[in-house]
Design a protein that fits this description.
The chain is an alpha+beta fold and about 280 residues long. It has 8 helices and 13 strands. Helix content is about 30%, strand content about 30%. The strands form 2 sheets. The protein has a 9-stranded antiparallel β-sheet with strand order 2-1-5-4-3-11-12-13-10.
């Protein structure tokens, strides 16, 4: 792939361009005076951030400001660019539009930084999120049984716990004492007064009434803030990003980023601060 004569490369002072795949990053262009500045590890971290948020936040192109340098990662052509303080995004997006979009594989992994009790809670959230049509869920933890009604609108506890605070206390106590979490799924009725995943996380962290489209998360923790309409795949992505090697590597200098869709519309924006905390505002 020869991009040397792209208008974006000519006009934007792009220092380097790389093609990437699941197991490879290949530098395909370097400006003559930037050969000593090419840092494959930074480019790899930027690609990792894009892969984490691309699917749940509908991000085709991710633009990152790392210290005083600019990086752009795109699923169109699977290309990453490094700019010297500036990239003409209009020209770059126009050139990238000629390439088909290759979305990364959406993650289905559990967050790897949660302790056993919080993993129990995560597994409950996963099973609730799968209920597109009305279902009854029976969760068994030792001698305790909690019955929930769930569908695409949300979930409601029907028996076994007074509220989500008591539900998660039971889950954590069961994990601490070495008990197993089991569940049974059957047809059910729609929950009369459904709560959302965000409501359950609010019960975990004591955070209520966040009406803004903002996320805030630290490594190994449930988000301290999340939008009321959040989905499980977005929750997974934010928690994975906060605990990622890329966040640790780039957080030392601070990173801000903006995600755009195929129509170049801003989808999200956020930052990773020098303490590794992630904040993200979704515009979906």
């Amino acid at each position: 792939m020869n991009i040397e004569y792209w208008p974006a490369v000519q006009a934007s002072q792009i220092a380097s361009a790389s093609a990437f795949s699941d197991d490879m990053i290949d530098c395909i262009y370097q400006h003559d005076d930037s050969r000593d500045a090419y840092d494959a590890s930074v480019i790899s971290d930027c690609i990792a951030i894009w892969r984490t948020i691309a699917v749940p936040f509908a991000v085709n192109h991710l633009v990152l400001q790392v210290d005083d340098q600019v990086y752009a990662v795109s699923g169109h052509g699977s290309l990453a660019f490094h700019g010297r303080r500036y990239i003409n995004l209009g020209l770059l997006f126009r050139s990238l539009g000629d390439f088909p979009f290759a979305a990364p594989t959406a993650s289905v992994e559990e967050p790897d930084s949660l302790d056993n009790g919080n993993l129990f809670i995560w597994r409950v959230l996963e099973r609730i999120a799968r209920c597109e049509t009305p279902r009854q869920l029976r969760f068994e933890i030792g001698q305790n049984e909690i019955v929930c009604s769930a569908d695409a609108s949300g979930v409601q506890i029907m028996a076994g716990a007074a509220d989500f605070e008591e539900f998660v206390d039971v889950l954590r106590a069961g994990a601490k004492s070495g008990q197993q979490l089991r569940y049974k799924l059957s047809d059910g009725q729609p929950p009369p007064q459904p709560s959302t995943i965000a409501d359950i996380i609010g019960a975990l962290v004591g955070q209520k009434g966040n009406d803004e489209d903002n996320w805030s998360a630290k490594r190994g923790c449930w988000p301290a803030a999340m939008p009321p309409g959040a989905h499980l795949d977005q929750l997974r992505a934010v928690m994975q990003l906060a605990s990622s090697a890329a966040a640790r590597n780039l957080g030392g200098v601070g990173v801000s980023f903006k995600g755009y869709n195929a129509d170049r519309t801003l989808q999200c924006e956020g930052k990773i601060d020098t303490e590794g905390s992630v904040t993200l505002r979704s515009l979906l």
